[in-house]
Write a structure and sequence with these properties.
By secondary structure, the protein is an alpha/beta fold. It is built from ten helices and 15 strands. The structure holds adenosine monophosphate and magnesium ion (MG).
Length: about 325
């Protein structure tokens, strides 16, 4: 394992991160969702490095992180009332708003698109970094393209090693799955990716139904069939089918890890991770659990997802993508 960098006092750590970002380097930083791989959103060369390090196709746009919602009209060319309302209700928080792109945002950030995705993360270190940097920081999740997102500084160091210039360590991520993405650039509001803010919460703030579009005309990594995937094969099961699924996998000679809510009877898999505390706890520990089971060299990860409401919808979405047939890029 790589040696950890000596821990700096927080002020020095922030100053170092700001200086590196201004030099066009890459800084991984904690948010409440997952760790981001950040670069100065207004420096096209720095943005190109993100795509290179991640192995991410350049057509897949990045989210720009800012310290405050006053940045919306600076980075977007037109901010509709629905965006203002959602930003006021949920920022800082796990909600990304897609608005028309302002001239300050280079096309390389948006994968050539006329829209830009913007978010104010709810993490004290991220907010300090963004305030002191004084601009937008474009950041996808700090992992290689298609792999499991990092929810701790150690995950980032293990995945990206020396390819990231600095890792700001803020402990484990509170939400644990990526932000909800909402497109407010069209006539009606559209949910592009479920996340930490539920559909019901969005609709209650807007007072209107929100359309869900899982297959966007925009090609987004979060919408590729196989994404967020560990090395082991992921199989989803209902609680009542668990014993039969396990028996079938055992018959194939597979070493099986199980990831299940506490309420479910333990099936007797080779390794079992039990999650207490409902969908929130499942979301918070999901990626670390997938990594832990990979580290146990299981062939298959058998998962009973939490009920699909609230953040449970996002957990199920990520698990379905992790279970999808693998494309060569993942
Ligand atoms: P990640 O790489 O996990 O941070 O994911 C970022 C997500 O934001 C991806 O699914 C992107 O495609 C999505 N995104 C960023 N910009 C836009 C945009 N302009 N329109 C639609 N989705 C976007
Ligand atoms: Mg990602």
């Amino acid at each position: 394992m790589r040696q950890r960098a000596p821990t700096l006092p927080v002020d020095d750590d922030i100053q170092k991160s700001v200086r590196l970002l201004k030099e066009g380097r890459l800084v991984a930083f904690p948010t409440e969702t997952v760790y981001g791989l950040g670069a100065d959103a207004e420096n096209p060369d720095a943005i190109r490095r993100i795509f290179k390090v991640k192995g991410r196709p350049s057509s897949h746009p990045l989210i720009v992180h800012v310290a405050h919602r006053s940045w919306l009209p600076k980075l977007g060319s037109w901010v509709p009332p629905s965006a203002e309302r959602l930003a006021e209700a949920f920022w800082p928080g796990p909600l990304t708003l897609v608005v028309s792109r302002g001239a300050r945002v280079p096309l390389v950030v948006t994968g050539g698109q006329a829209t830009v995705a913007i978010r104010v993360p709810n993490h004290p270190l991220a907010l300090r970094l963004l305030e002191e940097f004084g601009g937008g920081v474009a950041a996808p999740s700090a992992n290689r393209f298609g792999a499991v997102s990092p929810t701790s500084a150690d995950h980032v160091r293990l995945d990206l090693g020396a390819d990231v210039d600095h890792v700001l360590d803020g402990g484990s991520c509170e939400v644990g799955v990526e932000s909800t993405i909402v497109d407010v650039s069209r006539d009606s509001v559209v949910l592009l990716r479920p996340g930490g803010i539920s559909l019901e919460a969005l609709e209650s703030v807007l007072g209107t139904p929100v359309r869900v579009e899982t297959e966007s005309p925009v090609r987004t990594p979060g919408q590729l069939p196989s994404h967020y995937a560990p090395r082991a094969r992921v199989v989803l099961a209902k609680a009542r089918d668990l014993p039969a699924e396990l028996a079938a996998l055992r018959a194939e000679g597979a070493r099986v890890g199980a990831l299940i809510p506490l309420e479910i009877e333990r099936p007797g898999a080779d390794i079992e991770l039990v999650v207490a505390g409902g969908a929130e706890a499942f979301a918070r520990t999901l990626y670390a659990s997938l990594r832990a089971l990979d580290a146990e060299r299981v062939d298959v990860i058998l998962v009973v997802p939490p009920p699909a409401h609230g953040v449970g919808v996002a957990v199920t979405d990520r698990l379905l993508r992790a279970a999808a047939p693998r494309s060569p890029s993942t």
